[in-house]
Design a protein that fits this description.
By secondary structure, this protein is an all-alpha fold. It is 73% helix and 0% strand.
Length: 209
């Protein structure tokens, strides 16, 4: 009889333990779901990129620079519903950003522009890294979104400066001066004594008796 009672009590203990474990798991799952919902909402709220050119120069390049047009189109397409959609979009943006190194228009193939593109790519890669972590640091992701927008503005302003600078006319007489300088460099110096061949030098030496 005592054996049956002990077995019954043990069975009740096991059942209670399983029930408590299930409740604990449900509580943890609910907590994790709420946390993920907060992360999603924060990223969803901050996910707004400058996908329209801020000046005429950047707008003109949309039609002639394919990589630039594709990049702006990619960042303008906002994902929906799940954090997984944001992760996929982040990877796509990173790929399009890296392509900006290709076919850079000749007028923009200068260190100032290339360095801005490099910084922009670095920021986007960092965002892509953080958003794909197991525990997403949403504050870092949202901060980087703001940083990426700043770099976009900086890049487009630099593009504008390059074009404006190329249109500034040279000061009056500057072109003539540069041509004259090049011509002067091409004319040999007449004050330089000619170099005589070695045999001629020996012939001119005085004879000693």
């Amino acid at each position: 009889m005592k054996y049956k009672i002990s077995l019954f009590l043990l069975l009740i203990f096991v059942l209670n333990s399983c029930q408590n474990e299930d409740e604990r798991r449900r509580a943890e799952n609910e907590k994790e779901a709420k946390k993920n919902e907060i992360i999603f909402n924060n990223i969803n709220k901050a996910w707004t990129f400058i996908d329209e050119p801020i000046n005429e120069v950047a707008e003109q390049k949309v039609s002639s620079w394919t990589e630039w047009r594709d990049f702006l189109k990619e960042i303008g397409d906002k994902p929906r519903k799940t954090i997984g959609a944001f992760q996929k979009k982040s990877a796509a943006i990173s790929k399009k950003a890296f392509a900006l190194n290709n076919n850079i228009p000749a007028e923009f193939n200068v260190p100032q522009i290339k360095s801005r593109i490099s910084i922009l790519i670095t920021k986007i890669k960092m965002m892509d890294l953080f958003i794909n972590l197991n525990t997403i640091p949403d504050k870092k992701v949202t901060f980087l979104i703001g940083d990426i927008n700043k770099e976009l503005v900086s890049l487009e302003r630099q593009m504008d400066q390059v074009v404006v600078k190329s249109k500034i006319p040279k000061e009056e007489g500057e072109a003539d001066f540069l041509r004259m300088l090049d011509t002067t460099r091409a004319i040999p110096n007449s004050n330089t004594a000619p170099v005589l061949p070695a045999q001629n030098i020996n012939k001119k030496l005085p004879t000693v008796d």
